[in-house]
Amino acid sequence: MKNFFDLSFEDLEGLLADLDPRPFRPAQILRWVYTLGVDDFRDMTDMPISLRESLAGLCDLRPLREIERTETGDQTVKFLYVLKDGEMIESVLIPEDGHSTLCVSTQSGCTMSCAFCETGRNPGGRNLTTGEILAQIVYSIRFTGDRLKVRNLVFMGMGEPLLNLESLLPALNVILSGRGLDFSPRRVTVSTCGWVPGIIRLANEGPDVNLAVSLNATDDHTRSRIMPVNRHYPIGTLMDAVNRFPVKARRRITFEYVLIEGINDTQEDARRLKNILKGIPAKVNLIPCNDNFSDLKAPSEDKARAFQERLLDYGVLATMRKSRGQEIGAACGQLRAGSTGKQHG
Questions:
Q1: Cα(101)–Cα(188) distance, rounded to whole angstroms?
Q2: What are phi and psi for residue 99, nearest 5 degrees?
Q3: What is the SS3 assignment for the chain?
Q4: For residue 304, what are the CA distances in angstroms to 2, 31, 314, 330?
Q5: Out of 110, 117, 289, 332, which one is annotated catalytic?
Q6: d(CA 280, CA 243)
Q7: What is the pLDDT of residues 262-286, one digit of tens each?
Q8: Among residues 83, 67, 196, which one has the least CA distance to residue 133?
Q9: pTM of the predicted model, to two decimals?
Q10: Which of 8, 51, 53, 284 is 20 to 30 A removed from 165 (C-alpha atoms)?
Q11: Is residue 170 within 8 Å of residue 130, measured between CB atoms?
């Protein structure tokens, strides 16, 4: 049976050509699936029963099996899914005022091995299909009960998104299309650890989405120590690629900066960071390091705030990310698929 979400719009039209060629059928089905979040073709009550039954026998609207759902007091929700081949992935729904941001996975592991990231401890796994990426979003819509409550999408769940552009680019087409999930490009962010060929390809072939770069150090020696990707694409090469990434008016490239005590949190680091970002419409998102699974520690709150204040003094827009979901392993850098056997769905 096909994963429905692996079908392109053209694939769906081809499928319906043999079942019901009336031209309004594709839009009708897409609305049920992507806007209303229906998980059973039989519930599409404005279509003939025979068509609903045929589609139910050909396509699966529940390609992920949710095996665990964990919530925090601040209503952050972590979902654990098992895929058809037994691989597991996680996604995280983070509440904000009246809406949520969904962190979406693109791989079932990660080969980047960043020192501060739990997912990198699972170097196996594989690329997700387009349908496995899209299904995470649709499942979150079903959970909230309203497409508009899932306002922002961030591809910084499990995996390096730019290593899976073969699946991510078609997914972005559905995400941004009015026929699909109809997200504003301003609300979609693709994050990377600094995979330069992917940044260049996304700039040349991708749609108009936001770019976030996980930088985390201001000199090559330190960055190579905590982010092995820097040995292939050092800071100078990375910033050359970032400078060529198209950025529309009133938008910025986000630079994620995990603050690690004694490694990248000095006032000199702040000064170098200012120089690295010179001329780029940038926002720095400071993230105190999670110390739940490694010997790396976050600096004191006072030291972290001093780092932020120095950047602001330099004229660099810098925010301090509020930690969400840390107690359930849903905070930044903590995703690592595993099960405690708590069943849902």
A1: 10
A2: -155, -175
A3: CEEHHHCCHHHHHHHHHHHCCCCCHHHHHHHHHHHCCCCCHHHCCCCCHHHHHHHHHHEECCCCEEEEEEECCCCCEEEEEECCCCCEEEEEEEECCCCEEEECCCECCCCCCCCCCCHHHCCCCCECCHHHHHHHHHHHHHHHCCHHHEEEEEECCCCCHHHCHHHHHHHHHHHHCCCCCCCCHHHEEEEECCCHHHHHHHHHHCCCCEEEEECCCCCHHHHHHHCHHHHCCCHHHHHHHHHCCCCCCCCCEEEEEEECCCCCCCHHHHHHHHHHCCCCCEEEEEEECCCCCCCCCCCCHHHHHHHHHHHHHCCCEEEECCCCCHHHCCCCCCCCCCCCCCCCC
A4: 49, 46, 16, 22
A5: 332
A6: 7
A7: 999 999 999 999 999 999 999 999 9
A8: 83
A9: 0.92
A10: 284
A11: yes
68 contacts 342 by C-beta, under 8 angstroms:
yes
pLDDT tens digit sequence for 119-178: 776 667 899 999 999 999 999 999 999 999 999 999 999 999 999 999 999 999 999 999
Residue type, position 343, single letter: Q
Say which residues have a Cβ less than 8 Å from residue 22's Cβ, sequence separation at least 6.
Answer: none
> What structural domains does the chain harbor?
2-60 (1.10.150.530), 65-328 (3.20.20.70)
Rounded CA gap, 163 and 110, in Å?
10
Active site residue 289: no
Tokens standing for 19?
């079942």
Residue type, 255: F
Angle, in degrees to the nearest 10, between helices 235-243 and 196-205: 0
pLDDT surpasses 50 at 344: no
Residue (of 208, 96, 212, 214) closest to 152 by Cα position: 96
Distance CA 26, CA 154 (A): 28
Active site residue 68: no
Rounded CA-CA distance 216/235 in Å is: 11
Q: Which residue has the tokens 């050909």?
A: 58
